[in-house]
Design a protein that fits this description.
111 residues; 3-stranded antiparallel beta sheet; 3 helices
Length: 111
C-alpha cells in the first residue's frame, strides 16, 4: 500500500515490545520494536520472505531509525521495496504502542 505514513509521537507510546507487519512480495515482513521510557531501544526484522541479503542490507536503516528515533528515514539503495516495507512495519508497531496507552484494559506488552 502506498501513501504517506502519519507521524507517531513516542511520547504517547507505552513501554513494551510491539510487532508491526507490512506486506512485501513474496510475503509478510515482521519487525519487533521495543519501547522504553518513550524511546525506541531495540528494532529487529523478525521475518522477511525475501532473500537474506535484503535483511542484511536493512541493518543500517534500522540503526538510523534508532539514532533518529523515527521510522522516517531514507530508503536503502538497492532495497527500495524492502526499505518501504520495513518503514511501514515499524510505523505499524509504533501505532500499536501509541494506541495501547489509551487502553486501560490492556493486559500488558508482549514479551
Amino acid at each position: 500500500t502506498s501513501g504517506v505514513l502519519q507521524p507517531v509521537s513516542l511520547a504517547q507510546c507505552r513501554d513494551g515490545v510491539f510487532v508491526g507487519s507490512s506486506y512485501k512480495f513474496p510475503g509478510e515482513m515482521l519487525v519487533s520494536v521495543k519501547i522504553e521510557t518513550n524511546r525506541i531501544t531495540e528494532l529487529k526484522v523478525t521475518r522477511q520472505a525475501s532473500i537474506q541479503k535484503y535483511s542484511d542490507i536493512l541493518a543500517p536503516m534500522l540503526k538510523t531509525m534508532m539514532e533518529k528515533q523515527s521510522f522516517e528515514v531514507d530508503d536503502v539503495t538497492g532495497a527500495t521495496m524492502s526499505s518501504r516495507a520495513c518503514r511501514r512495519a515499524v510505523h505499524n508497531a509504533l501505532v500499536q504502542a501509541a494506541a495501547s496507552t489509551a487502553s486501560a484494559t490492556n493486559a500488558g506488552p508482549a514479551k
